[in-house]
Write a structure and sequence with these properties.
Shape: elongated
Radius of gyration: 33 Å
Distance between the termini: 34 Å
Number of strands: 14
Largest sheet: 11 strands, mixed
Helix content: 55-70%
Order of helices and strands: HHEEHEEEEHHEHEEHEHEEEHEHHHHHH
Length: 443
Amino acid sequence: MNFLLETLRLGLWNLRLHLLRSTLTSLGIILGVAAVILMVSIGEGNKQTALRDIKQLGANNIIVRSRKPPESSSFGSQRRSFLVSYGLLDADLERLAAFVPEAEKIIPLKTVGSEVSYKHKRITSQTYGTLPALKGVLNLGVEKGGRYLSEQDLELRRPVAVIGHGVAEQLFPLEAPVGRELRIDQSVFTVIGVLEPVGLSGGAGGALVGRDLNQDVHIPLSTAEMQFGDVVVRRVSGSFSGEEIRFSELYITVASTDEVIDVAGQIQKIIDVGHSEDKDVALIVPWELLENVKRTTFAMNLLLTSIAAISLLVGGIGIMNIMLASVIERTREIGIRRALGATRKHIISQFLVETGTLSAVGGLLGILLGVTLSIAVADVLPWLMSQPSIQNIIETDISFETQITGWSIIASFLVASLTGLVFGIYPAIVASRQDPIVALRHE
């Protein structure tokens, strides 16, 4: 025990004598550890953002969506006319209800209206007639003071609407939306609730749904059918186009994520019965995308970590170079110690203590730097990108999220310590092999 303590004391004393050199030597380890922690936290933050967006759609959900067929399809004769008819029909809904017993809920969404307005303010419509059960299926929250659609609204065909958070900010920036009346085309609706912000405006979730859910307006499906019918007329660049769509989307919920992939296959076969040639219905499986995101982000984290780990390798090489120079510098000291009875084991131990301490202290400082950067970058980067001087060069609205993981801290510290020891072995062996007589004569 005394030997170990004395060896540690001598090693630390030698490092203290050359504090600046020791600091510069461990700089590669410090930056390497910090880079690993920062890269992993960025990758994990992006992963969690994507997963949260996708989970917002419900991991147990399957989305069946009407989509406008390509111009080269069988709808070529209709594309020249004013009205294009495509998408999900009542027959599709009936077949799914009859032949997919695993489906706990089938919630239709019906696109209506071309414009939503309040007083002089107007926005393009993202209005959907739907059922009250959609709130639970999409995990939607309603801001305090309002409510979501109810069964009574559906039965009585009430002209009520629940608006997204983005719609509320655009149409009602200075007043409470609940109780106000807005227009969807020429029909008047009373706002009964405002949805809480939904994190699907960008990222994987936004790409999946193809729109910003914060701009949605929900009305009772029965009201939508009574007041708007199946034809949606839109004005684009001064011209009009009409689309006849019975249902724009169906949200199908199953009991467990284990059943999602199999049920999605059944649904695809049922849909293909009436739409195999038209290609006007698409299937979206959030759970499948969820698994893909996990695999992709794991590979990306591995790549980023490998790149950052190169800094640790460079740091280890730096330690070896400095320790080799130290062997030459301290040749006479080694000779004196050997003459006084120190064995090769003692010399190796002293040099390994020094390299181990350099790498361990560098690892701790790297952890501190990496954690600090991970916390700061989520706030500093968006602020930096919002500066006018940056915006003049590139217009961007960036949101950034980082998540520090315990395994990256532990792994980077262990690798840093191991790197110091591995790259310190060779200089230690070189020092231990010094001939005492030759070493004492060294000037």
